[in-house]
Amino acid sequence: MTEFVLGLRLLLGSGKGSRVRFLLMVAGSAIGVCCLAAVLAIPGVLAAQDARKAAREPDCSNGLGLCLSGQGAGFALTRVAPYDSDTLTRIFVAQGSKPIAPPPGLRVLPSPGEVFVSPRLHEQLRADPGLFKLFPGREAGLISARGLAYPDELYAYIGVRRDEIKNGGHLTAFGQKRTDYPTVEPSTLDILRFTLAGIVLLPLAVFLSVCARLSAAARARRLAALRLLGLSRKGLQRVNAAETVVAATLGAGVGLGVYWAANQVVSRIGLPGFTWYPSDGSLPYTAVLVCLLGCPVLAWCVSRSGAKKAADNPLAVRRSAEEKPPRMWGLLPLVPGLGIVVGYCVAGATGHAPKDTGLSSILMPVAVVLVGAGLVLTLPVLSRLLARSLARSTSSLTLGLAMRRNEVEPSGTLRVATGLVLLVYAASLTQGVLIELDQVSKNTAPVQAYSIELLPHLSEEKQRAVADVPGVRSHVIKTMSWTDSDTPEPVPSVQAVIGTCGQLRAMASVLEGCVEGRPARLLVSAQTYDESSRPGARFPFRLIDRAGRHKTLTVEVPQRTVRYQDDAAVPAVSTGAVLIPPSLLPNGFRPEFGTLQLLSDSTPHVVRSVLEGIAAVDPTLEVETEGVDIAALRQISVIKTLLGVGMVLGLVIGVAAYLVAATDRAMERKSQVTALSLLGARRRTLRAVQVAQVVLPLAVGLLLAVVTGKAAESSYLVTGGGSVFWDGEGVPLLLASAVGAVVVAALGALPLIGRRIDPELIRRD
Q1: pTM
Q2: Which of 109, 120, 235, 322 has the greatest number of CB atoms lying within 10 Å of its CB?
């Protein structure tokens, strides 16, 4: 405790400069802890949203027949549809004779003809009158915050009669252990955590280390003096830790206060694609302890490392002592990391993308960490090699002075450039994550396909009404041949497409050999031919009329073939399917089961118009949008927002780390700059030297970060199982970010050479 008090007395009595440095360390720690708290709060926000989702879900609302219920139970039906980049959820509720407690957010269940909507949906209904088609009834009230996952959710409860729910499930209560529609899937959440760790936590650790090592050279000489006066090694470490630990502790408390205020403000404003309630952003006790203890512990470790040299060899930190050159062992993490990355890139380029995602899920994070660590440890080595080479070959005084300084002090590059280099490297990986998520949630095809199950209550009139919805290009009916379920052995089956050549022509970009009124076999070039559909084979198809009478139609697979190809993400018809003209069906009969396939343009307003038109025919119909993962629409929006927040936090941390490190480095070099000024060096020359010795190693590090980052991104995409491996569109953005970082570094170095010359700075030299 005596050494700790000594450290505080030295802090208070070391002049204005030491107190300013202490305040800067507090401010830096506060910024870092605030960013750390924001990252740690994200899982809690998502968990709170999922808990409210689970508490309101009907116990059985999808008609799966898995819920047993006694007499008098109600019925419910859940329908989830895309609405722009968001999801629209509707719960159709029919009350039974037994009372059912209302879900959270409602005081009573809606009666037939009543609709309860979320506040945002209430506003959207006023802005988009066509949306009313999805909600049969009148608006009876709003859902409170307890029943919504997030403030701007599109959610509604619709009261209907029992006979209006044709394929719903029994309803006895609301609430489940977990939700069927989590805000972010667990596997995606793991990817998000890993990415945020790369773009926020790694630069944050660098930033906090930089803040804990402000004026490291001056403090090392002061500690060396105490060591020469007889202070023990452990005592010396306690003296050094007094300032850094106290600053980190105060900064942690201030940072938590800043986060609390920011959460209250930002949660009420919201972020694009992601909103939450202020209570959701409250930090759990474990996260608070991590912030309050983690920052001081990191500061303690950094202070011990900073005091080790002065404690072991006090004379090694004198002003005239030469710094040891960096060792080449810093390349050790980079070589195996790049080996894994390059291996996956080669596998993707040669068409041998790995099928085993289990091994890749282990190797890929390891490779990313190794490459990132290798970048940091390689910077001093590259900086020294570059400085030595340029210093020997250049005839410029400015460049020579700058490179000689970098040659004798390569560790300065590590402090100044590390944050920005890691930020650019992580930005490339973030692009890869977004590309992979886009591939599984977005329909990039020019057309959009829709599938509607041909349920018994979907009459011919409704089928025609759905097919005539504005925006629908064309439609066909797909059905499978009938097989007896009692047959012990599997029986071959074939798909049939009921439609005219005109209907197919309106859907297809390629249609060759189709003759109106003649059956044919459909061939889709992108698919494998169904061996069951061989010419001459006969298959029965079950038909039904309005009276419920059944008839079997036996179809022989014809010799005639028709080439078909459309622009949908998945072709609307299958190769080997039999085209059956509607004129061949018995009058008044239609397939007993199958799907109604529709096609439209894929522009968002057309898709929305088609879905609204289908809902106007029957709002309880389940429409499957081919090529669009509805559950992933909200996820991709949330992930993009959170990664955007992470990039902003990483940018703030990276720029702050650079400014702090560059300023501190310039302050340490004031005596050398003063000596050069007294020898006749012009201020313009000294500024050019300062810029050159910062910009050149930073530019090399950023270039290496761009190259390795793009390689790591490509290898990540190769292991992700998607169709996109190489993303050339992101290269200009990364290069622009790197150039911007160099410009910021150059501008930040200019004011560090002042007009005033203070000979007192070199009096002791």
Answers
A1: 0.73
A2: 109
